[in-house]
Write a structure and sequence with these properties.
Number of helices of chain A: 11
Number of domains of chain A: 2
Largest sheet of chain A: 9 strands, mixed
Low-confidence stretches of chain A: none
CATH class of the largest domain in chain A: Alpha Beta
CATH architecture of the largest domain in chain A: 3-Layer(aba) Sandwich
CATH superfamily of the largest domain in chain A: Zn peptidases
Mean pLDDT of chain A: 94
Strand content of chain A: 15-25%
Order of helices and strands of chain A: HHEEEHEHHEHEEEHEEEEHEEHEHEH
CATH topology of the largest domain in chain A: Aminopeptidase
Structural class of chain A: alpha+beta
Radius of gyration of chain A: 24 Å
Oligomer: homodimer
Shape of chain A: globular
Distance between the termini of chain A: 33 Å
Largest interface: A-B, 57 and 57 residues
Number of strands of chain A: 16
Amino acid sequence: MNAAKKIMQRIETLARITDEPGRLTRTFASPAMRRANGLVAKWMRAAGMETRVDAMGNLIGHFEAKSEDGKKPSSILHPSSSPRLLLGSHLDTVRNAGKFDGPLGVMLGIACVGELRRKKTQLPFAIEVVGFADEEGVRYQSAYLGSKVLAGSFDAKELRRKDAAGIALAAAIKIFGGNPEKLKSARLDPKNLLGYLEAHIEQGPVLEGKNLAVGIVTAIAGQTRAHVTFIGHAGHAGTTPMARRQDALCAAAEFILATEKLARKTPGLVATVGQLKAEPGASNVIPGEVKLTLDLRHAKDSIRRSAHLALKKNAFQIAHRRKLKIDGEVVHETAAVACSEKLSGLLALSVRRHQKKVLRLPSGAGHDAAIMAGITPAVMLFIRCKNGISHHPNESAKAEDVRVALGVMSDFILRLAKAHE
Amino acid sequence: MNAAKKIMQRIETLARITDEPGRLTRTFASPAMRRANGLVAKWMRAAGMETRVDAMGNLIGHFEAKSEDGKKPSSILHPSSSPRLLLGSHLDTVRNAGKFDGPLGVMLGIACVGELRRKKTQLPFAIEVVGFADEEGVRYQSAYLGSKVLAGSFDAKELRRKDAAGIALAAAIKIFGGNPEKLKSARLDPKNLLGYLEAHIEQGPVLEGKNLAVGIVTAIAGQTRAHVTFIGHAGHAGTTPMARRQDALCAAAEFILATEKLARKTPGLVATVGQLKAEPGASNVIPGEVKLTLDLRHAKDSIRRSAHLALKKNAFQIAHRRKLKIDGEVVHETAAVACSEKLSGLLALSVRRHQKKVLRLPSGAGHDAAIMAGITPAVMLFIRCKNGISHHPNESAKAEDVRVALGVMSDFILRLAKAHE
C-alpha cells in the first residue's frame, strides 16, 4: 500500500476513536485521547521512533536518523543534544469534528519518518513528531494547551480552569497520567530546535479555487474578537410610528453591512458577525437591544487594527444618528504570527517540484504553529480541503493531495539536511 | 372624589387582582378573572346597572336610562328590545402587564353610567358596559375570544384548543361557570345595537408627541405577519475569503434596512423585524441560515399588500444577488377595520369641546372594536399613554387625561341621544 493511502486509512481509524458515540469528539485528556495516543504511539514505533507522553499528555515520537559517532542512536530517555526538526499537529478535535483537522499533520509526520527509515536516509538531525494534546480548547475553553507547554508559554494559572463537569485542569492532567507540577520540564529547549513544520488542511476554499493540492502559509492571521451592543427602545410594532423608533436591530443591520463592505474592499481582511441576539425577540415588538459579535482577522496587525478602529467609529456614528446607546468590548486579541521566511523559502522549492504553482496564503485560523513560532522558526503547509469545509463531519481531503504533501515534506527534510550540513 | 380619580383608584385596585404574585397577569377564565369580574360587577351595580356574566365569561352591565312607558325599567333578565349603546373593553391582560390596557375602557364605561345616573339623565336607549373575558389571547393563543362570542363570529372549533396545562377551552369555560354549548345564544342581536364605543390607551407615542389627551381612531390597521428564511452557507470566519461567502446574516441585514426604508417613505405604514435567529450562532462561524419575522401594518389594506409584495420581491433580489436560497410564508393576515364615520363624526364634536385639536389616527394594535365592528358601528377613543409604553408594568396614563376622556364620552352619549330622538 502506498504511503498516502496508509495515511488516509489511519485517519479513518483515528476518527472512530471518540468520546461521543456516533460522532467524532476527542477532547483533552479524555478516554478517547488516551486510546488515540496509544494507537498513534504504536504507529510511531512501527516507523522507527521511540515515543514518550510528556507531563501535559502530548505524544512525542523521536527519530534519530543518524548517530553522530556511528554508535547506537541516543535513546529518547537520554536524548542527545543533537539538533532536531519538529513535525506535527494536534490529536484533539472539536465536537462533531471532521477527521483531518489535526490528525492529518501527525500522520504526515509519521509517514515522513517511515519514508526516511525505509530509504535508510541519514540526516544530520533528529526528527520529533508531535501529537499535541490540545489545540481546539474544547474542554477547558482555552486553546493550544499542548503546544503552550512545549513552547514554555503555558500559564500555570490555567491549571485552575474547570471543565463542564467541574474537573480542574490540574486534576484532569493527573487522571490522564501527566504531572501538572512538571509542566515546565516538558518545555523544549529552543537551542536544540531547527524548526517546526506543520501540515494541516486549509479549512478554507482558496486552494480548491486555484486547483492546487498544497500551499505555503505566510502568516497566521491576528484576530480581534469584540462584543457590540446597540441599545435602543423596545416598542409596540403596531403603534410606534417609524419616525419615533429606536430600533436596535436596524442599527445592527447597518453595522453588519458596513463591516462586510470594509472587509470586501480591504485585501486579506475577513470580518464576520457570527452571533446576533435581538431582544425582547417577539414578532410584534421593536427590538430594543441587540448584542452581536465581531470577528476580524488579517495577516498584518496594522491593517486589522485600523479596520477595528474604523468599524468602532462607524458603530458610534450609527448609534448617534439613530439616537441609540452603544456598548462594546474587545474580548480577545491575538497578534499575527509570521512564518519563518527561511524555512518557507525552502518549502517553496519543495512545493515547486511537486506542483505547477507555489501559492502563498495567510491562515485565517489559529494553529499550533503560532505557539511554536515563539521558540523556533515555524512553517506551515496547507492541504486542499473539499469545499473549504472544516469542523464538520463532511471535512475531507484527497489521497492524491496527501501524496503531494508527503512528497513536499520529504523533499523539505532533505533540503533542510543539505542546508544544515 | 371626582370621577377620574375614582377610575384611577379602581384601576390600581384591579391591578392587584392577578394570577401571578408580584406582577399583573390575568388570563381568560382564571381565578383572578373570576375575582375581577366579581369586583367590577359590584362597581357596575353601584352605578345603577344590573349585571350578568354570559356563557363565555364576558361581564355585562345593563343600564336602562329611561323606561319607554314610564314604568320600572325592564330588567336585565327580561331585557327590553330597546336599542342600546355598548361601551367597553377587556378585563384580561398580557403577562406582566400594565394596568390600563383594557380596564381603563371598562372603568370609563361604568363612570359614564354613574354620571348619567347621578345627573338623572334620561336616554332613549339603554347602555351596556362590557368587560370582555379575553382580548389578549394569552391563555389559548387566540385573541378576541370574548368579543367574538358577543359578535357571533366565534368558531366552535376553537373550543378544542388547549392551554399550556392541557385544559381545553371548553373545559375552562365550564370550570369558570360558563356554558360552551350556549355560546351562540350569547351573541348580541345587531338590530338592537346603536354602536360600540371603546376607550383605550393609545399604546403608542403619537398623542404624547402632539400633546393631546385623546384622539379618535380612524381604523384598526390590517396586519401581515410573515416568516422569512435566508439560507446561505456556514463557513469558518477566519478561512473563508469575503468574495466566497454566502452570509445569511448580511442578506438579512439588507432586508431589514430595505424594510425600514420602505416603511419610512410610506405614510402610515409600520414595518418591523422583531425576531431574528442566526445559525449556527458562533462568533467564529459565518451565519449559514437566518430566520426572521416581518410584521407589516397599515390602515389601508391595499397599501399593506403592495408593501408586502415589494418587500417579497426585494428579499428575492437580495437572495439572488448573494446566491442564497430564500423561503417565506405568511403566518397571519387580518384586514383593516374602519371605524364608523358617523359615530366618529359625533365623537369628534365631543372631542372638540374638551380639547384644542381633534386628532384622528389609526390603531396599529388590534382591539375588541375590530370584532364588534362586524355587528355594529364601532368607534374608538384613544387616551394618551406615557412614553407610548404598553404591555409593561410602566404603562401609565394621567388622571387629567382620563377626566377629558370621561367628559368626551359623556358628551358623546348625549349627542347620540339627541341624534336618536
